[in-house]
Amino acid sequence: xxxxxxxxxxxxxxxxxxxxxxxxxxxxxxxxxxxAYVETYGCQQxxxxxxxxxxxxxxxxxxxxxxxEGADLVIINTCAIRDHAVQRVFGNVGALVHTKRRHPxxxxxxxxxxxxxxxxxxxxxxxxxxxxxxFSPHHLWQLPEHLYRVxxxxxxxxxxxxxxxxxxxxxxxxxxxxxKAWVSIMYGCNNFCTYCIxxxxxxRERSRLPEDILAECRELIAAGYKEITVLGQNxxxxxxxxxxxxxFADLLxxxxxxxxxxxxxxxxxxxxxxxxxxxxxMAAHPKIAKQFHLPFQSGNxxxxxxxxxxxxxxxxxxxxxYGRSLMPELVYTSDVIVGFPGETEEEFExxxxxxxxxxxxxLFTFIxxxxxxxxxxxxxxxxxxEEKNRRFDRLLQVQNTISEEKHRAxxxxxxxxxxxxxxxxKLTARTDGGRLVRLAGDDSLIGQFIRVTITDAxxxxxxxxxxx
Length: 468
Hints:
The chain is an alpha/beta fold. The chain has three domains: 10-159, Response regulator (Rossmann fold, 3-Layer(aba) Sandwich), CATH 3.40.50; 180-408, pyruvate-formate lyase- activating enzyme, CATH 3.80.30.20; 414-466, CATH 2.40.50.140. The protein is 36% helix and 21% strand. The chain is built from 13 helices and 19 strands. The strands form five sheets. A six-stranded parallel β-sheet has the order 2-1-3-4-5-6, with helices on both faces. Strand 16 and strand 17 (436-439) form a beta hairpin.
């Protein structure tokens, strides 16, 4: 079989590098070291994209600032998953008209998932005239070209053509953390859940070659990174487009077998493609974190079918039970949507019963947000907002009680953690299962794996002490 996913050619990438170098020289000729502000909304994949944006801007000669005020360039990397995030972006981009008025030379770009939606990108183009350019995720690799058009040719840059997507290897990256790294192993999604806009704005599933992923991971380990999280909209679909005898479990095992001291995590899995082989691989490799984020979205089979999720309650619970049979300590987290169009009270109670059955360590909970252009947005939705809010509050109460009970069960246990930073006067750390631990200790411990004894717990975190 031949690879289905196109790669951006080396010649096209070199052309972008040449434009980057030209822009850097252009700024130097003016005696200016320009500054850029990059603001990110949404998921880990957007964070990883912003790291590539910063890498490209660095090559173009930009330094970075933590505020849009006074920056020569502002790039807003957007999320289209929920209406609240979309409205925040519109509001914040609108407010940039004031920073540009105070700094007339400022250039403003808006990119990310929102710009993959023609209706939204059209509104941005036509109504936000202070914005100089927009580009969708498919056109991120062409950022130097967009900048050149705005800076040198003094024209607007619009790059939002629809595309199934390609892969650009070797883009520069500036990571925001020197301990934890995101590594994208694939892009796009083929699942078309009826509530989700992602396949429409990020294109079809396309996998990076395993040798490129392994090379990136080796570089990270050599540079001292202690935690690597591999990313994909559905990592369990990895490799299907490569025409090679490799799947996600194989890739995960190959990374886990690399030399060095590090923890390996992954986000996000879809239950339809989660396999026993993946659980077996996790159990067999100590470096793979015993944490599994497995979104279930609803505990009711009719709703799952309406969501186009391609699994039922029984399959989901079978996966949960199989994982725990191999790894009793496995930490499960998940996503759940409350108030999907037409959800009845009894169907909502099925979700509550699933939560009580599984006893997740934590949940990411959402009230259904209609996304224009998705099938679910056309469904009748008779449930009042007040009723959805009531159900949401009940779900939170149930899950918070479970989270606190599970956290209190850690008291007295000694755990290996990675110390990753500070919060006030306390160090912060993460367990193998991804649980947050706060403890007293010297800053020199940051970046180290240590052992702590859990002395107390709250709903959302653990309290620990250094183990003598």
